[in-house]
Amino acid sequence: xxxxxxxxxxxxxxxxxxxxxxxxxxxxxxxxxxxxxxxxxxxxxxxxxxxxxxxxxxxxxxxxxxxxxxxxxxxxxxxxxxxxxxxxxxxxxxxxxxxxxxxxxxxxxxxxxxxxxxxxxxxxxxxxxxxxxxxxxxxxxxxxxxxxxxxxxxxxxxxxxxxxxxxxxxxxxxxxxxxxxxxxxxxxxxxxxxxxxxxxxxxxxx
Amino acid sequence: xxxxxxxxxxxxxxxxxxxxxxxxxxxxxxxxxxxxxxxxxxxxxxxxxxxxxxxxxxxxxxxxxxxxxxxxxxxxxxxxxxxxxxxxxxxxxxxxxxxxxxxxxxxxxxxxxxxxxxxxxxxxxxxxxxxxxxxxxxxxxx
Lengths: 206, 142
Hints:
The structure holds two protein chains of two kinds.
Chain A: H1 9-25, H2 27-33, E1 35-41, E2 44-51, E3 58-66, E4 76-80, E5 98-99, H3 108-116, E6 122-123, E7 125-126, E8 135-136, H4 142-145, H5 166-178
Antiparallel strand pairs in A: 1-2, 2-3, 3-4, 5-6, 7-8
Chain B: H1 2-52, E1 61-68, E2 71-78, H2 83-93, E3 104-107, E4 113-114, E5 128-135
Parallel strand pairs in B: 1-5
Antiparallel strand pairs in B: 1-2, 3-4, 3-5
C-alpha cells in the first residue's frame, strides 16, 4: 500500500525536483562512480549501482527512493531488482554494507584480520529475516526512523543536518556497499566424465 | 664684518637645509629600494614554492568545485590554505551549518578520503578539482 501524502504534494514535489536537479548537475561525476539515475518521477527515483572497478564491470544493485511526504518524513529506501524493479528479499540481495568498528589505536591490518576471522561487524542493511525485505538502517532513512528500535531518534532532529537528501543516501550506499567491492570470487567445480577402460586381449598377463 | 659673518651663516644654514633635503630624498629612495628588494624576495619565494609543487605559475590558487551533499559551490583556494578552511567556506556558502565541520568528510570523486589538516598544495590538484563533502553516517540527532 502506498504511503499517505499528508504534506502539501506541491511542497514535496518541489523538494523532490530540487534533489533531482542537484543530482543531474553532477551526473557525469556520479556516472564515473557507477551511479545511474534510471528514472525520476515524483515521488520515486530509481538509481542503479555498478562497479566500474570490476573487469568486466558489474551491476551490484538498485534502489528506489520514495519521497512521499518529503521532508516531513525522510525518504524511504527499497532495494530492488535492477531489471524488474521488484523489491528484493534479504537472501537475494548482493549488496552488503559492513561498517568497520571504531577501534582507536588499532591498525588497519589488525582490523582487517579480525573481520576476516569473524569479528562481529555492524551491517547497515538490516532485515527481520532472510525472506523479508532488507532496509537501510541509518539516520535520514524512513525505515530507520520508523523502526521501533529508533523511536528515540526522531527524523525531525536530523532534518536540517543534511541527512536524508538523495545524494547523502546514495553516497552512503556507494561508500559502504559498492566502493569497497574489490573483485570477483569464483568457485569452480569440475565434474570429470568417467573414462571407460576396456582391457584388450594383448594386455593379458601370461 | 658682522654682516659678512651673518651672510655666511645664512648660506651655511641654507646649505645645511639642502643637505638635509638631499639626505631625506636619499633615505626615501633607500626605503623604496628596500621595499622593491622585499617584493623581489617574495616573488622569488613564491616561484620557489611553485617549483616545489610542480606548477607553472597558475596553481598558486586552485579552483575547487566543492559538492556539499549534492550541491556544487565554486571556491578559489590558495595552495597554502589548509583544506579544512575550504571546507568551512563551502559549508558557509551552502548554509550547511547545522553540523560541526568535522562531521563532514572530504572525498575525491573516486572516494578517497582527504586529510583536512593538509594544505591544498599538498594534494597537487592542478588548476581545477572537484571534491565532495559528505556527512558521516549517523553523527547527527539524539
